[in-house]
């Protein structure tokens, strides 16, 4: 009998759309002072609704495993111009600035962002399907410098396997490039078990074996959704 994780990755999704997604997705990662993480989360819980009125939040997470004292949020925009307008509106939102940005700023030690585009056909989608609590795994791959055309060509083909726990796959546009990111959802971290995610994927998917052969590095982050995250 296969393990729950193997079953999770071995079931192909027929519901994934293969049409190109014109939207862009911004991953924003903030490093928080270790002695101020609780304060930052409480401030966000009370005031982050002010930000949600400006654009669509896909998910907001604390990093539980892999890179501590950090938060990661994922935003969806219709285009770069849409993002520009949202950022301009935020800069003029006095309530947002005074009630959240100014109190949060001393608690943050660093910020990075990456802008990504979806890889069609990979993942079950980012719309919440239930409100049950879950954990998430973000896998990021830095590709070999000359391999991106080959990788993107390979990913245009119908996936030989589409993990049922994978919500989406993206390619990097700005940030660390060339790169790929994928977001996975599990009921608990224990479901992943002692075998690494790569071991399970490599035994079941020639496509992901191909990706590994064209990757310089692979990083896994274990994420917990915050109360105000769209994905739970």
From TrEMBL:
InterPro entries: Dimeric_a/b-barrel (IPR011008), NIPSNAP (IPR012577), NipSnap_domain (IPR051557). GO terms for biological process: mitophagy. One of its GO terms (cellular component) is mitochondrion. Residues 25-118 form the NIPSNAP domain. Gene3D superfamilies: 3.30.70.100. It holds the Pfam family NIPSNAP. Signal peptide: none annotated. Belongs to the NipSnap family. This is NIPSNAP domain-containing protein. It comes from Oopsacas minuta.
